Amino acid sequence: PIAQGHGLREARPLPILAPSGAVLGTFTLYYRERRLPGPQEEAALALLANTASLVIGQRHEAQERQAAEHRSRAILESMSEGFIALDPAWRITYANGAAEAVTRRRREELVGAQFWDLFAQMRGSAQERALRRTAQERTRSRIEAYDDAQNRWFEINSFPMEASGSETGGLALY
């Protein structure tokens, strides 16, 4: 009824399909006369529907990825233990609130810093060797470290993190 009110007499709809087969929407060609679409119009319609499917799918994946990151951060922030993530170059990429308390450093000072620069007292120690072995051999380890400034011992658990693609991931410390 609406299309006819604008002088349109024929329509060729094509569903926009998700990879799962779910219908996301449709693209429709309208004609003022009754006729079938030609091969070029069919190809253009198919291309548009496929492109829309890819764009919608990418947006959906990005939303899912953001939601998963949000859930992960909420979990890490709820931990009572300090948690620090390191990239393969030993740069701190994440520190939770408890890590701020344990290290007595603000998150802004931790994130982006080189681990061995911030914790220079560990250089040359058995703890450094154990952490580097964990990173190289991609195994878990548990070490104890004494902090003179805080006059206390810390237990540090480390495990390798996976990276995307063929890259080697960093380490997680808690």
What can you see in these coordinates?
The chain has 174 residues and is α+β, with helices and mostly antiparallel strands. Helices cover 41% and strands 25% of the residues. It contains six helices and seven strands, in the order H-E-E-H-E-E-H-H-H-H-E-E-E. The mean pLDDT is 91.
What keyword list fits this structure?
174 residues, 7 strands, 41% helix, two-stranded antiparallel ribbon, alpha+beta, 5-stranded antiparallel beta sheet
Describe how the helices and strands are arranged.
Elements: H1 2-5, E1 10-17, E2 23-31, H2 39-78, E3 84-86, E4 92-95, H3 97-103, H4 107-110, H5 115-118, H6 126-137, E5 141-147, E6 152-160, E7 171-173
Antiparallel strand pairs: 1-2, 3-4, 3-7, 5-6, 6-7
Number of helices: 6
Rg from C-alpha positions?
28 Å
Structural class: alpha+beta
Order of helices and strands: HEEHEEHHHHEEE
* Cα separation of the termini: 65 Å
**Average pLDDT across residues?**
91
The side-by-side strand order for the widest beta sheet comes to 4-3-7-6-5
Major beta-sheet overview: 5 strands, antiparallel
The parts where pLDDT drops under 50 for at least 5 residues are: none
What is the total tally of β strands? 7
Strand portion, in percent?
Answer: 15-25%
So what's the overall shape?
rod-shaped
User: What is the helix content?
Assistant: 40-55%
